[in-house]
Structures
1.
Amino acid sequence: MKPTTMTMAALTVGVLALVPITGATGNAETPLPMTAAAAVAPQDDDHAGEAADAHGDDDHADEAKEAHGDDDHAGEAKDAHGDDDHAGETEGAHGDEGGGDVVKLALEVAKEAGILLEQAELGALGESLSLPAEIRFDADRMANVTPKVSGVIDRLLVGEGDTVAYGDTLALITSRELAGLKAKWKISKTNEALAAQSLARLEGLWAQKITSEVNVQTARAEHESAKTESEAAETELHAVGIDHAGLEKIATAPDGNNANAYLTAPLAGTIVRRAATLGETVTAGDSSAKVLFTIVDDSVIWADIAVYKQDISRVRVGAPVALKSDAGDVIAQSTVAFVLPVIDEVSRTATARVIIDNSDRTLTPGQFVIADLSVGNAAEVLRVPQSAVQLVENRPSVFVPVDGGFAPRAVMVGTTAGGYVEIRSGLEEDDLFVSDGAFTLKAQLEKDAFGDGHGH
């Protein structure tokens, strides 16, 4: 019987299965028995054995397991997304105050830096009205210094721009007039003393009935006359600036010193004008007397606001006023002190005067500014100074004290007038906030954020 093709194929596979497998060392190993499944596998598929190795005893099976099981990057990924250093930073830095960072600053240091705290409170706030204003010297803090006696300027001790205190010597004038007044006073004091002695002697004689009453009365009249002349001479010296301490020094003054007249500062301030020249002859006591020095104290100044006639009825005494630069920056804040009850014939405006504390010298007399007034019917609202509100991360915010420093707190603002801003939410009455120095804190916050790589 002729074998079939299927029988021949099975025999061929069986013979091949009995061939010994030689290892890498050349030693024969025990023949591997074939399974029925292997016997019926297609005989000409070259990849059959390769597939078995790949999925049977393949060394990469364990390697793959390690790669996806004990892979070192698995823990690394967990750390990267679980214990990320920035995770805690984000939570702490943008905590409870409007998502902003804390500016680390002790309260004592903040106070020295000019950062002031106030409690939020209710205040009147009306409509905003912007008017032109001019900065002027306070007339009560300005002095023109003229000589009190005629003479020759012998020494000049100050110049323009110098700061002087009350009573400081400005110039020395050699005055024959003053020397004559002092001599007259000395003579009158001597005559008074002699008249007093004569009266005392005659009163003693009258008591003993040795002299007449007429002589005593005459002595009394002479004494009163001498006393009156002495008092008049003393008054003249007081009028030219000689006080009681100076009177006591007249009798013991060195030769020539009684002609020295010292021109002194009547108030503390700055010399803004000096018209005196060394060796110049000056006169006193009439309208031709020359102003030698002009002293001003610009620690307090006036802002005169030009109020148009249609707005006069809207401006009230005590209304908040903010003085602003042309760029809109708030320079100073105060209230309307009074409104003059006259209208200028040329400009047709009235004057509303504001008294400004200018101790930091930010305003200069002669400067023109914009006055932002709160006018009309004012309502009681929670308000803060306009400079206290700063944009932090594009949100209006005020800085509030927190543990270790200051943090921005987002607020909702309303009406702005007279240098104040209405706070509708985000801040409550009596809450502490930074009323002065908020811009400094914002600048420091942005500086710290830039250094940390966070944007604000």
Note: Confidence is low (pLDDT under 50) at residues 1-96.
2.
Amino acid sequence: MMKLLLSEIARAVGGKLQGKDKIIMMVVTDSRDVNGRNVDGILAAGNNTVIDYSTLLFAALRGERIDGHIFVKEILENGNSAIIDNPEYIADGTIMVDDVKNALGKLGRYYRENYLNNAYCIGITGSVGKTTTKEMVAVAFASKKIHKTAGNKNSLIGLPLTILEAPLDTEILILEAGMNQKGEIAILSEIAKPDIAIITNIGTAHIENMGNIENILKEKISIITGLRNNGKLILNGDDVILSGKQTVSNDIIYFACKNTNADYWADNIGYKDCSTVFTLHNKEKSVQIQIPTIGEHNVLNALAAYAAATEAGLDSKAIVDGLKSFISSGNRQRIYRQNDIIVIADCYNASPESMAAALAVLSLGDGRKVAVLGDMLELGEQSKELHARVGEYAAKNNVDILIAIGDFAKHIKAGFGKDCKTFGLNEKNIAADYINELLEPGDTVLFKASNLIDFGSLIKTINKIY
């Protein structure tokens, strides 16, 4: 856990300290954390350190709905400290900066370079699969002292906080880098200073903000901006956009399922009891790997993790043993059986690429294959076309029954080309009753939509599967 003086923090971020110096042990962005009311937030770093709440530093961020500065007066009155960028709130215990969000990034970079310099960092980005790959990288490095991004804290706020929460004895730092706007990945890379950068794939997620696939590619490739000397870039060799990418000077390592010229590639892929088995090949050896999840896309994620750990110098057996312990997080392709119905709950997020992967997993199921699909967000002008394409994916993967929910349900139905029941976003309770009546023992059912569509809550209202 960090232990810095306010004066050192002020120097690191180019700010001005007002009042006496004191020790700071954690930076928080939620005002509830400052007085210990939000215990889960404080312990997000994953350790059991007892926190003296007077040693917390509140970053007064300006959000879309709430300006964090409105909490500063109360926080200071309780003996705490704050980083601010509004001069009206200057008082003892504050550090005045030009921009609080930028200051967080500067502090994260400072801490990485001065206190976690010996930690080996794996940076992960991509259109889909970032979080699952991060979790697979974490288990691949299970023999080391790791610190990883919690949940999806992969933004210009979340990534610096993740670094600041890292124990000083961290050996492997695993950081996920996400983006909404142009230029963010390069900034995150400069903060993280990765030794290895992984790009899982290039897809249409966030195309509404980025404009086109080429801009998305440029943004993702910019993860090399902060790559350390002799750093390595690991790319998906099956991705038609990334394969053969030679416009960067760094060492490039490819992983693939279909491209046998890749540095790490897999064949003999099979499925049994909610697990996937495959043979991994590289120039040194071939090894059998088992991961407790389903799908070729997860084989690719495991290949990326194996490649990163191998390039970092880990023993193959330790990596293979680690991958066996992988557990899907939250509603990311959580597969379970209830009342003899196989449920694939993949509700955390959705893009055309992840929809295709999820439908491919459904196609491997037993019995009737039922797909419950919802809206994909942030697709901009291409939304109608891309939702229709998802319907086509469902047809190609031999979905027996398709149920579409949301504003773009009719476009999914049009692409499916067969009978499809549709519901609006305000009809999810009606949809739940319909699905509950429809499902039978022996069915395999997939739930997939963007997180804001809240299919997690939908599942909880269907008695046969929850």
Note: Residues 271 and 277 are 6 Å apart (CA to CA).
